Amino acid sequence: MERDYLFVYGSLRPAADNTSLIPGAYATRAALEASSYIGPAQVPGRLVSLGAYPGLILDNSGSEAQGDLFQVCSADILPLLDVYEGCSEQCPQPHEYRRVRADVMLLSGQRVTAWLYEWTGEELERSGSRRGEPPAVPGNDWLRCSKTGH
Asked: I want to staple 85 with a disulfide (CB 3.0 to 4.6 A). Which of 80, 90, 91, 97 is the partner?
């Protein structure tokens, strides 16, 4: 298997709290533990709050979304994550997320290309509740939200 990296910014972050209400979070986090944790990282973009979890909007606004980087140690983890994120071929359309590659920067300044799940905004459009963009995540860091319950 080629060396793959995965950037996580929400419920799959090692220090994330309040994930018990997200279906499949415990089992998915357990499966991710087989991968090698690299460390804190960031990606150009903004995090928005979707209630119990965040969405990532990749952009060049100058903001950096905070998260964690893993080296994926098994080819089986990405299809499992696709199901968790609701974007596998078996999941109903439209998908709320899509798996894409993006440049991620570690705190050391090293850059790597990693898989991540970008929010598509489709769920809000499908429910008819799209009234502008969801609220921004404070500090572009979901851990700040998850610790306070927002």
From this structure: 97
